[in-house]
Amino acid sequence: MSDVPSLPEHAERTPADHVTQISESMAIGYLLMDHEWRISYANAQARRILGAAGDDLVGQVLWELVPATLGTVHETNYRSAVRTGQVVSFDAYYPAPLDAWFEIRATPTTGPAGAGLALYFLDVSARHEAEAAARRSGAQLSALGRVALALAQSEDIDDLVTTMTEQGLGALGADGGSVAVADPEDSNQLLSYITASFGEGTRADFGRLPLSAEAPVTVAARTGRRVLLSDHAACAAMSPLVVQSNAATGCQAWASIPLHADGVVIGVLTAGWAQAQSFPVEQLDLLDTFAAQCAQALQRLRSRDAERASAEAARVSAERQAALVAIAHALANAQDHDAVLAVLEEQGRELLQARHCGLCLREDEGGHVTVLITDSHDEVRATARRVPGDFPLPAVRSAATGVSYFLSDRGQSEAAVPGSTQLHAAAEVQASAAVPLVARGHLLGCLSVGFATERTWTEQEQSLLEAFAALTAQALERISAHEAERAASAQVARFSETLQRSLLTSPPEPDHLHIAVRYSPAAQDAQVGGDWYDAFITADGATSLVIGDVSGHDRVAAAAMGQLRNLLRGIGYTVGDPPATVLTTLDHAAHDLGVDTTATLILARVEQTPEQRRTGTRLLRWSNAGHPPPLLVHPEGTVAFLETPSDLMLGVAPGTARHNHQVLLTPGSTVLLYTDGLIERRGATLQAGLDWLATTTTDLAHLTVDELCDELLARVGSQVEDDVALLAVRAYPEDRPRPAEAGPGYDPR
Question: Is residue 632 helix, strand or coil?
Fold first, then answer.
């Protein structure tokens, strides 16, 4: 009701007041009646609706003016409002001559002679019609849904057309209709399956029509366009034949909708109505929707029949596809050209029922072709190994130029490539084919097959061979790419090995200190990264320990790592200052010398005063530039991270303040330094990695430091996603000889 005025909520209690307040321009009808139901006032809208002048209404009794209200909901509600003194609102239909729906508010009034009634009424016929249309449309859509299900379950044409005509057309509100298809024996005739409601006479007279006839169904079939006839006049304008059908069926409106499948008219759906039709958009949408459902169902049955007719061909195709899948798997595992050739020999020849299969590989932009033929074609193999691109063999020409050949016999081969007959005769080949091998737009060569007998190449066989060639081309491209990758990886591996050997040297072994180091790349043949360890003895005799990680994973990172390592060695050896001072000097030096990189790093010194030597203890002093904390393993096997606030990583702000930290090492203590590759896991938090390291090291605390490093790398295994560098140092009691497990001591000084 948002588009029409609302009725007043309250009514005044006297006629005089109403006359002064109600405007003659109101869009709502208004009647005022006294206690005898006599009209005392009617506004202009009421007069218009009731079709009378003002003087014709005033003074008339309501029941005499509109007698159709007697005995209806109108009378009941009017009298209820007067009796109860309560406003009564309702919607009701009033028959002819008004023939309309009204929204009515009956408001009781009071007067000197007794209770009266004020009626406000608004024509809401349009709203009710819209609601009724929506309900009808919903019901039709629901019915069409049920019909669509029935169509999908139809098993033959008779069942399908019965559902379409007897159920579907009824759901559309049609009085009857038909489904027409081309006569399979005469494409110039239409066969129509007509609803039973039209009678057997109609079926006999109109069940078969020439396509040239002037009727909605034939015109739709010829043109592929919808034909609509809205009434008798439109039917008469088309042809006398339509007038005859109107007389036979009792219909005067027709809609013929062509049924399309794959761009072709496969039938026509026709609906007829006894009443004239305006064909609004909503009705046409429903017709088109149902026609599309019918076309889909009809095409499904047609396709099924065609499939049954070609069952054997489908079986053969399925077997070939299965064979292609097996060949695809085999080719995916082939590592070189010989392996590909073996797949062609063992599986390709069986798939194609060929005498031979072979590869012709293009070289020098087609200037030469290398011919690889399966053992069943030794004659050609012996004659053609590496030949010019114009060698007289269709396969060689295909590999050089990218042209396909499907040749039925030697005669066609000779016509296509003069001089090929002798080679094919020697190999006992009649029919042959050569299909280019193309991968990513590059011509690699061709796949060649030969047959001992003549054959006619079908479209399906050509497609099969092209699919086989595509799989082979993918395998060859993959092999070529892998060979290039292996060559590049081998070169990188050699570079990495040389660089690694020069940078990650063996550590010193000061007396009663055992140092173990390990490095593990993230993947086999990976480029060397920026992770490194180092250990050296400074000029004052202290042992310096280093673990670091330069940003990046390439040769640039490796070069930067080498520069930082050498700078740190030189500074650390010379100055003999505490680690924080050494790192500050290193940061400034790297900046001033143009070593443009960032890195996390821990520098530690193992120191010992004379007093500590007497007690067998040592002092570990370290500074941390943004690196994961060292792990201390106590002699009894418990572990603790040396978690102190870390300073800023190197290469960011050379002037940043750096700090020293220290811990006393008792005999038997072990310190583990490591890079983040040991503790970082995809999908896990850093804390989870640290917890894993602590737990695992506790379990391994009884091992030597070499065994500890090896076992940590073994346990992290394939989970490593980054390089890992490890350095473990263990302090042995100095009142005993150096343990055998620590190996001989080594001091390069």
Answer: strand
Residue owning tokens 């029941």 = 63
- The per-residue pLDDT for range 295-309, each reduced to its tens digit, is 888 888 878 777 776
Q: How far apart are CA 557 and CA 527, in angstroms?
A: 10
Cα 146 to Cα 500: distance, rounded to the nearest angstrom: 75
* CB-CB contact of 443 with 360 (8 Å): no
Which residue is it, tokens 């009678």? Answer: 199
Handedness of CA 184, 189, 191, 192 (dihedral sign): positive
Q: In what order do the strands lie in the sheet with 100-111?
A: 39-42, 29-33, 114-123, 100-111, 88-94
Q: Which helix (H) or strand (E) holds 221?
A: helix 216-223
**The whole model's pTM is what?**
0.43
Burial of 157-196, coded b for 16+ CB within 10 Å and e otherwise, reads eeebbbbbbbbbbbbbbbbbbbbbbbeeeeeebbbbbbbe
Compute the mean pLDDT over every residue in the chain, rounded to the nearest whole number: 85
| Structural domains in the chain, sorted by start | 15-123 (3.30.450.20), 150-309 (3.30.450.40), 314-483 (3.30.450.40), 504-732 (3.60.40.10)
Select from 560, 561, 507 the least CA-distant residue to 531. 561
Q: Shortest CA distance to 116 belongs to which of 18, 16, 15?
A: 15
pLDDT, one tens digit per residue, over 110-169 is 877 788 999 999 999 888 887 877 677 666 667 666 776 666 676 776 777 777 777 777
Closest CA to 538 of 507, 495, 571: 571
Phi–psi pair at 558, nearest 5 degrees: -65, -40
Using DSSP bridges, classify how beta strands 442-450 and 227-229 pair: parallel, antiparallel or unpaired. unpaired
Q: Which two structure tokens, joined as six digits, stand for 245?
A: 């059908």
Buried b (16+ CB within 10 A) or exposed e, 554-574: eeebbbbbbbbbebbeebbee
Element (H, E) at 520: strand 513-520
Tokens 């042995």 sit at which residue?
732
For residue 405, give both structure tokens: 């050949």
pLDDT tens for 433-456 read 999 999 888 899 998 888 999 988
Q: Whole-angstrom Cα distance, residue 431 to residue 445?
A: 20
Torsion angle defined by CA atoms of residues 561, 567, 572 and 575, in that order, rounded to the nearest 10 degrees: -160
The rounded Cα 505 to chain-centroid distance in angstroms is 51
Q: Produce one character per residue of 635-651: b if its CB has 16 or more CB atoms within 10 Å, e if not.
A: eeeebeebebebbbbbb
Q: How far apart are CA 35 and CA 37, in angstroms?
A: 5
> CB count, 10 Å around CB of 77?
17
DSSP designation for 163: I
- How far is Cα of residue 216 from the mean position of the Cα atoms in its chain? 45
